[in-house]
Design brief:
Helices cover 60% and strands 11% of the residues. It has 6 helices and 3 strands; from the N terminus they run βαβαααβαα. The chain has a 3-stranded parallel beta sheet with strand order 1-2-3. With 112 residues, the protein is mainly alpha-helical.
Length: 112
C-alpha cells in the first residue's frame, strides 16, 4: 500500500483540473499497488466537484466494494470529511452494475 500526499501535488482540493491530477496519480499507484492511501493532511479547502472528479470517478469505475478495498482517505478536516462523504455517498447512490459496465465500455472503446 502506497500513500499519496495530496499537499505534494497542490495546496487545495478545489478544482476539476486538480481532481484530474489526483485521479491520474491514483491510477498510476493502482497500476503498481493493490491499494492506495490518499493523505489530505495540510489541505484546508475542498469542493464536492473536486471529489466527484477524483475519488468519485473510482467509485464509478471500481464499484463501491472494490473502491473501499483499494482506496483509503485520511487527514481530512471536518469540512473535508463532510465534503468527501457527500461526494462518496452520491457516487454510491448513482452507481449501478449496468452503468458500471457502460462506463468501462466507454473507457475501453473511446472511439466508438
Amino acid at each position: 500500500m502506497k500513500t499519496i500526499l495530496v499537499k505534494d501535488l497542490f495546496s487545495s482540493a478545489f478544482s476539476e483540473s486538480k481532481a484530474v491530477i489526483l485521479r491520474e496519480e491514483i491510477q498510476k499507484m493502482l497500476s503498481q499497488e493493490d491499494s492506495v492511501v490518499l493523505d489530505f493532511t495540510g489541505i484546508t479547502k475542498y469542493t464536492t466537484l473536486f471529489f466527484n472528479f477524483s475519488t468519485g470517478f473510482f467509485v464509478s469505475i471500481l464499484g463501491p466494494e472494490e473502491y473501499d478495498r483499494k482506496i483509503q482517505v485520511r487527514g481530512l478536516s471536518d469540512l473535508g470529511e463532510s465534503t468527501y462523504r457527500s461526494s462518496y455517498e452520491n457516487a454510491i447512490e448513482k452507481y449501478s452494475p449496468e452503468m458500471h459496465e457502460e462506463i468501462l465500455n466507454i473507457i475501453g472503446n473511446p472511439q466508438d
